[in-house]
Recover the amino acids of this structure.
């Protein structure tokens, strides 16, 4: 189950109440983790995956325009990782971060069926529409 990041929630609430402006977000990256994150920041940050072929800091992920009530969106691209090492990786956590110079974690969660074992030579790519975010 995913959740909003504590710092992102505070920034959004401040912006919604006119107490601060929300920073511009040029894009978002998806990061994979070997541990489960929690909403608390920084103590709840997951341990980012350490596997040959994984890109530290994550890969760009794009989103559909949110619709409905609650507001729902899903990913419109499929980032791809290949385990090019000699040992299996175990995917547990997922985090969505901004691509700003000083990135801010927006969302965090645990993959359904975690841990997902990724043997050497295997690829992992979340399906288009497979990552769903809802607020409201």
């Amino acid at each position: 189950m995913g959740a909003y990041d504590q710092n992102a929630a505070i920034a959004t609430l401040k912006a919604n109440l006119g107490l601060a402006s929300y920073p511009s977000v040029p894009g978002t990256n998806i990061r994979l983790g070997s541990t489960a994150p929690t909403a608390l920041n920084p103590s709840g940050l997951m341990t980012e995956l350490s596997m040959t072929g994984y890109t530290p800091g994550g890969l760009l992920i794009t989103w559909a325009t949110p619709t409905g009530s609650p507001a729902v969106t899903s990913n419109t691209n499929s980032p791809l990782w290949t385990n090019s090492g000699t040992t299996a990786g175990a995917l547990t956590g997922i985090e969505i971060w901004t691509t700003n110079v000083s990135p801010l974690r927006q969302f965090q969660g645990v993959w359904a069926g975690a841990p997902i074992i990724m043997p050497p030579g295997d690829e992992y790519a979340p399906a288009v529409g497979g990552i769903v975010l809802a607020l409201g």
User: Anything to note?
Assistant: The first strand starts at residue 3 and ends at 4. The helical segments are 6-16.
